Structure to design on (227 residues):
């Protein structure tokens, strides 16, 4: 089956930029997503990018997509303590053979040091 | 964006019993999914809830254990049957339209004792 990989932990100082990386194997990925999960909470959709784009910016968030290398990253500028959470990368295959379901990575736990 | 209401938000259940989780969406959606997140783990798809027909289950999940209903385009239920402590997880409802983003409910945190 398809696979999504991401590093498990990232620690940054408040005010610095955070970069969370993700790689995936599905050549037919249509959308790639970033979700945030705080302790005891559900998944909050942060942003997503269509597979024919290479960059998307939304306030403090920048998503970069290298489709050739199947590499996705999420950059959070001016990281705050409230950004401490688990960040999940996910992809969906909306092609004719796909099922529109999402495949998730294991999540990256971001710790922000005051 | 879709607003998803999931109930209950959490429950503690005795082993051998069943729990039905409800997912209500504020608009009609094409697709509804049920995921499981075991403690400290990522999300695994249980099944796709199909309106008016039987759900499509992923490998490792069966209808007898996780019966799903979807009577219309805004509502679905997932039942966790004959529960054991291994079923302790967060269960999440997700919705999306074709070629649109996927949204999640807040999840149901289930503890089986």
């Amino acid at each position: 089956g398809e696979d999504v990989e991401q590093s498990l932990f990232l620690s940054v100082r408040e005010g610095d930029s955070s970069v969370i990386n993700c790689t995936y194997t599905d050549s037919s990925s249509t959308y790639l997503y970033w979700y945030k999960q705080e302790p005891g909470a559900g998944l909050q959709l942060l942003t997503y990018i269509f597979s024919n784009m290479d960059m998307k910016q939304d306030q403090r968030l920048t998503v970069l997509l290298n489709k050739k290398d199947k590499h996705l990253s999420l950059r959070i500028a001016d990281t705050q303590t409230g950004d401490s959470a688990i960040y999940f990368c996910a992809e969906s295959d909306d092609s004719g053979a796909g099922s529109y379901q999402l495949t998730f990575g294991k999540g990256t736990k971001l710790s922000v040091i005051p | 964006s879709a607003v998803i209401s999931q109930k209950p938000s959490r429950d503690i259940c005795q082993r051998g019993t069943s729990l039905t989780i409800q997912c209500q969406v504020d608009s009609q959606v094409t697709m509804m999914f049920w995921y499981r997140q075991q403690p400290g783990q990522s999300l695994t798809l249980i099944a796709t809830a199909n309106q008016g027909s039987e759900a499509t289950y992923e490998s490792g999940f069966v209808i007898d254990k996780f019966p799903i209903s979807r009577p219309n385009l805004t509502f679905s239920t997932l039942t966790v049957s004959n529960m054991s402590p291994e079923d302790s997880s967060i269960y999440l409802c997700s919705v999306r339209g074709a070629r649109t983003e996927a949204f999640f409910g807040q999840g149901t945190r289930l503890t089986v004792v």
